[in-house]
Every structure is written in C-alpha cells, then in structure tokens.
Amino acid sequence: MGTNMELTEAIKDYVNQKIGGLDKFYDNILIARVDVGITSKHHQKGKIFRAEVNLEVPQKHLIRAESVQEDLYKAINEVKNDLQRQLKKFKEKLA
C-alpha cells in the first residue's frame, strides 16, 4: 500500500525482493502487510519517507517494524534488517 505517493513497479519489486526474502529466516510467515509512503506533504526540508511492515506468524504473534528516512529505499532496508533480527529472535524462542 502507498500513502501520499504512487507505487511504481520499481518500488513494488524492491519491496517484494526485500520483504519477500524474509521467509529464509522464518519460513512460517502467514501474512505480510507493507505500507510505504510520504509521511506528510508539509516538510520544509523535502520529502520524508516511511516504511512499515507487519508480519503475522503462528500463535497470533505480530512482528512489526517501522522506519522514517529521507530516502524510501533506506527506510525499506532498515525495516527489513529490523524484521530479520526480530524473526531470528522469535525463532530462537521457539526452539
């Protein structure tokens, strides 16, 4: 989903590549909800981008990460790295 911006194919592909790759860290992700966009149209220093991802995993757990950056791709990367860390920790708890 895109907020205050149009999602191009390049952005969709990048999100699918980064967030879709998380299943190699935990292969039981049920649903991934992704929201990327511009936080507000009123920033004086240019556009500020936001990426938020909510992952649903078994036993009704929700793993969530959010990042706000001046570059959309940096925000997506930061969210991916945070989710990767959280998924590893979650998987260790289950073991």
Describe, in plain words, how this protein is organized in 3D.
The chain is built from two helices and four strands. It has 95 residues and is α+β, with helices and mostly antiparallel strands. It has one domain (2-94): Ribosome hibernation promotion factor-like (Double Stranded RNA Binding Domain), CATH 3.30.160.100. A four-stranded mixed sheet has the order 1-2-3-4, covered by helices on one side. Helix 1 runs parallel beside helix 2 (72-94). The radius of gyration is 14 Å and the shape is elongated. The mean pLDDT is 87.
What topology does this entry show?
Layout: E1 2-3, H1 9-20, E2 31-38, E3 49-57, E4 61-69, H2 72-94
Parallel strand pairs: 1-2
Antiparallel strand pairs: 2-3, 3-4
Structural class assignment: alpha+beta
CATH hierarchy, class = Alpha Beta
- Show unreliable segments: none
- Give the overall shape, derived from the CA principal axes: elongated
Main sheet, how many strands, which sense, barrel? 4 strands, mixed
* CATH architectural name: 2-Layer Sandwich
- The topology string of helices and strands comes to EHEEEH
Which percent range fits the helix content?
25-40%
What is the percentage of strand-forming residues? 25-35%
* Average predicted local confidence, pLDDT: 87
> How many extended strands?
4
N-to-C span? 34 Å
| Count of individual domains | 1
What is the CATH fold-level name?
A: Double Stranded RNA Binding Domain
Counted by DSSP, the helix tally is 2
Give me the CATH superfamily.
Ribosome hibernation promotion factor-like
